[in-house]
Specification:
Blueprint lengths: L6 H6 L4 E3 L3 E9 L2 H12 L3 H4 L2 H10 L10 E9 H7 L6 E4 L20 E3 L7 E4 L2 H27 L4 H4 L8 E9 H11 L6 H17 L1 H12 L6 H11 L4 H8 L15 H13 L3
This protein binds flavin-adenine dinucleotide.
């Protein structure tokens, strides 16, 4: 039996693709490719399926019908360098195996994330977790200067503490969230795609989306057919709730979107008649817009 390999992926091994000011994503190793998914699925379905469906058709069928375990036969191991505030989001993905740089054992390098002024934006009024409009340049500059100054002060205090003999595990308390950490991250393809579905999404913080894009670039090379199916049936798809289905039925009968929302009980206004800025009705209209933009 020959070990499956992808020459383009082999060339990526060990290459550090830069992300943010000091971060990177590097593929350390991988196991399997599209053929491994097919091989695992055919154990379930039997060799006879080959004549019925080609490999691409089978992989697309598996993804559409959430037959997930064949996708777990492909594994990836990455080395990632990332700011602690992004690592805290990333580590929530519990299905990966992680080994992180130990700041108890080693001294933290003097590297912190310093966003460009264009990335320092106003708190979003629609998304409590996000940022949107530009700030006046002097405000963005002041934030950036403050971040640079306080980080330098924090690192100087950290070095002083180490020099004074304070244990590394205690001295590190002086370092803020913008400092960088590093880890090995090993995950199977199915859970990697789940990570990407959440972290490529526009609701995810921009910085983690940049890392997700690098992870996606590797996954696409190792498993192009599975990745294409993921783009088709997950990333590019729009799911509908039962009520949204009722609203679509009303649209098909010629109702306006607002009337369809009313029919389906998807609220667009408050009790006092003022328009809602968020909620199921607003999200349904956003879905319609997204579908319209596919034209
Ligand atoms: C835009 C965005 C905003 C977020 N905001 C917040 C926030 O404000 N506060 C916050 O705390 N978190 C927040 N999160 C993190 C979020 O709640 C999840 O913890 C994170 O996205 C990981 O998702 P997951 O559990 O599906 O992934 P994984 O941990 O990778 O798990 C994959 C799947 O495995 C299954 N699974 C894994 N472990 C278990 C378990 N123990 N029990 C049952 N099933 C399990 C689940 O089906 C899960 O979907 C946010 C995430 C996103 C994307």
């Amino acid at each position: 039996m020959v070990r499956p390999s992808v020459p383009e992926a082999d060339r990526r091994i060990g290459v550090r693709y830069p992300v943010l000011s000091h971060g990177f994503v590097a593929l350390v190793d991988y196991m399997g490719n599209d053929a491994s998914i097919v091989q695992a699925a055919r154990v379930s379905y039997g060799a006879g399926t080959r004549s019925v469906r080609d490999d691409r058709g089978l992989i697309r069928y598996l993804l559409r019908h959430r037959h997930t375990t064949p996708f777990e036969m492909v594994e990836f191991k990455f080395l990632v360098r990332l700011p602690i505030y992004i690592a805290r989001q990333w580590i929530r993905h519990r299905t990966a195996s992680v080994n992180e740089y130990s700041a108890r054992f080693s001294v933290m390098p003097d590297e912190f994330e310093l966003p460009a002024e264009s990335e320092i934006r106003r708190q979003s009024s629609r998304n409590r977790q996000g940022r949107d409009e530009a700030l006046p340049p002097d405000v963005a500059r002041r934030f950036r200067d403050d971040l640079a100054r306080t980080s330098a002060e924090a690192y100087a205090a950290y070095q002083r503490a180490l020099k004074d003999g304070v244990a590394r595990e205690t001295a590190r308390l002086l370092l803020p969230l913008a400092y960088y950490t590093e880890w090995y991250w090993k995950i199977d393809l199915w859970n990697l795609l789940h990570f990407l579905s959440l972290r490529l999404d526009p609701h995810a913080q921009e910085e983690i989306r940049l890392y997700a894009a690098e992870i996606a670039a590797t996954a696409r090379i190792v498993c192009p057919i599975a990745f294409e199916a993921f783009e088709e049936f997950v990333l590019g798809s729009t799911s509908l709730s039962r009520r949204e289905g009722v609203a679509v039925a009303a649209l098909l009968k010629g109702a306006t979107p607002e009337a369809a929302c009313a029919t389906a009980g998807l609220p667009l206004v408050r009790d006092d008649g003022r328009p809602l800025a968020s909620g199921e009705g607003v999200e349904f209209l956003e879905k319609l817009e997204r579908i319209r933009s596919l034209d």
